Amino acid sequence: MLRISNHYISKVVFSLLFLEVLILIGSFYAGAGLRFFDGAAFVLPKLDHFFMSACVFAAAIVFSMSALGMYQINFKGGLRTPFFLQLMPSFVMGFCILTLVFYIAPDLYFGRGILVLVFAISGAGILLSRAMLLKTSETRFLESRIIFIGCGPLAKECGELALRPSNYRKYHVAGYVQVPSEESVVPAESLLAWEDGRSLVQLAHRNRVSEVVVSVQNRRGGTFPIKELLDCKLYGIKVTDAATFFERETCQIRVDSVQPSWLVFGGGFDQSFLRTFMKRAVDVVASLVLLVVTLPVMLITALAIFIEDRAPVFYAQERVGKDGHVFRVMKFRSMFTNAEKSGTPQWASKNDPRITRVGNIIRKLRIDELPQIVNVLKGEMSFVGPRPERPYFVDQLTQRVPYYNVRHSIKPGITGWAQVRYGYGDSVEDAVQKLQYDLYYVKNNSLFLDVLVLIDTFKVVVFRGGR
Length: 467
Description:
Layout: E1 2-4, E2 7-9, H1 11-35, H2 50-67, H3 81-104, H4 112-137, E3 143-149, H5 153-163, E4 170-177, H6 200-206, E5 211-214, H7 226-234, E6 238-241, H8 242-250, H9 260-265, H10 273-309, E7 314-320, E8 326-332, H11 357-364, H12 373-377, E9 382-384, H13 391-400, E10 413-415, H14 417-421, H15 428-444, H16 447-463
Parallel strand pairs: 3-4, 3-5, 5-6, 9-10
Antiparallel strand pairs: 1-2, 7-8
Helix pairs in contact: 1-2, 1-4, 2-3, 5-8, 10-11
């Protein structure tokens, strides 16, 4: 895994993305050269912004491929059906994006003849790169061998996570090292014999492992092999804490196993002036653009709500924001006016009978969230962040869920990491799962992660009907 702006990115995905960007830009030059081939030499057209046009083309296609999930690689699925079902729509979407760009900036236009050749060459190049990746995945090149220190429930959970089918990485669990005083819950045949007189480094070398994951629940006492782990690190063997392993593999922070010291002394939690200023600037610009673009949609939505269930069209509800301050969030009303006639707040479920017909549509398309642009412009919310919850539920969850208030250290968002990674939550258990994603975002938030969330939000809304 690579870390870019504190976010974990698969080396496979990063390498594939880098290679395909080069292929797309190279295809642009190759297509232009072929289009103006005079029989003796390849002559590139004299365009003032030729390289910029190539970069715009590459960005449009990469965005379209990302939005259609083409970088969520499935090695078992092969290339045929899933690849072509995604590649062709990606090119169609990319063409639509390019058409819009050319309308806004006509100087970047490079002609239909070049465009046809560029799409053909880039399609062949992407097919070749994916074939190479699939072939590589059949070898042990992507496989990592690991040892788990510990054999209790935490170690077992880590081992199951490592063996879970993954799109990006393959693990081979060499075994578990039992720590004295810890009861074993893993299969006896998976325990590694640590012979007297031999070091952990020798055990790791004998099993050809490249990483040691420390998955001991209780590290107190003199039985924890801290010196042996230091020797492993000095000999080039990666040593990883269980909390970091979970964070890396699931993009969550596990509240049931994380230690407070790991949160305090670990990296992340960037709340610097520069980060805050950049986030606010992006929020204001993006909100104004979205307000102009979606104004016709909001007017139609308001009319549809009024026709079906009369006024009020908007719904203001108290939510908990940054530092625990309560504010009123604005939304299009998607439920009947007497949705909570009992006076007690209720969890919203996926097929909630209180939702109107218009409300069902605007919830799936996330149109009901658009009035929150006003909250963003007022500074109460951000574009990306943990979704704000109602005070009634916050009081309950703060008492029952560890670290719940950590999510209130930054502004809540219209969309968030938990929203694109997890479905609707209508219970405390769901709230815990969503909190673990929110904690990951709070710890690792950056402009890069915000962009990934917005791309995933676009994918959820347009291609999966929302969550």
